[in-house]
Amino acid sequence: MFPAYFPHELVRRARLRSLRRGEVLFSFGDRIDSLHRVVEGQLSLVHLLPDGGELVLMRTGADQFIAECSVCANEYTCEARADKESLVASLPMAEFDRWLIQDGSFARAWAMDLARRLKDQFIRYQRLSLRNARDRILHFLHSEADTRGVVSLPGSYADWAAELGLTKETLYRALAALEDEAVLSRDGRWLTILESPLRRGTRRER
Questions:
Q1: 40: domain range?
Q2: Are 164 and 124 in contact (CB under 8 A)?
Q3: Do residues 163 and 59 make contact, with C-beta atoms less than 8 angstroms apart?
Q4: Are residues 14 and 103 in the same domain?
Q5: Could you tell me if residue 188 is inside a domain?
Q6: Residues 131 and 161 sit within 8 Å (Cβ to Cβ)
Q7: Residue 124: enclosing H or E segment and its boundaries?
Q8: Residue 36 and residue 75 in one domain
Q9: 89 and 14, same structural domain?
Q10: Degrees, nearest 5: CA angle 197-203-204
Q11: How many CB atoms lie within 10 A of CB 203?
């Protein structure tokens, strides 16, 4: 439920909550009083835009903390919503803080865990800063692909479009163009990088 480095005495204070698809764990402006970790299912951190739209900041699956960077804040600045039926374990923030203060080994392990998570989030923000759909798609694929150049989408194409900050129509058009150029291939939710456009351009120059 929690990483092995978490003290057993602290883990025993966790409480479980089941969420239906679409149910909200916390909303913008809610006071932060717990540290949450997804046990089963998947939740999204969603930022509500002024025009009524939404931007998915991050998707969090099983065995991952959600909004853990908020431990140093007082209120949430986004909404956490279940993408499917999910189970979440929550620790009282006061108890979590107490263990960080009194247990140096635990505090260091938590800091290392948080640093890895922040690196992943930086990559995501870097992707969203790219201007066009093609660049965001290629950035995602090259960031998430395995050694064979294969990516398995964790959700639907609609979910992926939201994560990339694109409409479904824009995503589908960009994917079709990349397939026509033989940059990638699709098989359901499996995508394979066939060739890097950068390498192809370099070879032509030679």
A1: 8-122
A2: no
A3: yes
A4: yes
A5: yes
A6: no
A7: helix 104-128
A8: yes
A9: yes
A10: 90
A11: 9
Give the separation between CA 144 and CA 139, rounded to whole angstroms: 9
Kindly report the CA angle at 55 between 52 and 60, in degrees rounded to 5?
135
Residue 72 tokens read as: 């140093």
Please say which residue of 122, 148, 166 terminates a domain.
122
The two structure tokens encoding residue 172: 């589908």
Total domains, the chain = 2
Give me 118's structure tokens: 């922040």
Cα gap 9→29, rounded to integer Å: 30
DSSP summary character for residue 71:
G
Q: In which element (H, E) is residue 47 found?
A: strand 42-48
Beta pairing class for 79-82 and 42-48: antiparallel
Provide the CATH number for the domain around residue 143: 1.10.10.10
| pLDDT digits (tens), the chain, 206 positions | 899 999 999 999 999 999 999 999 999 999 999 999 999 999 999 988 888 778 888 888 899 999 887 788 899 999 999 999 999 999 999 999 999 999 999 999 999 998 888 887 788 888 989 989 999 999 999 988 988 999 998 778 988 888 888 899 999 999 999 999 999 999 999 999 996 544 444 344 43
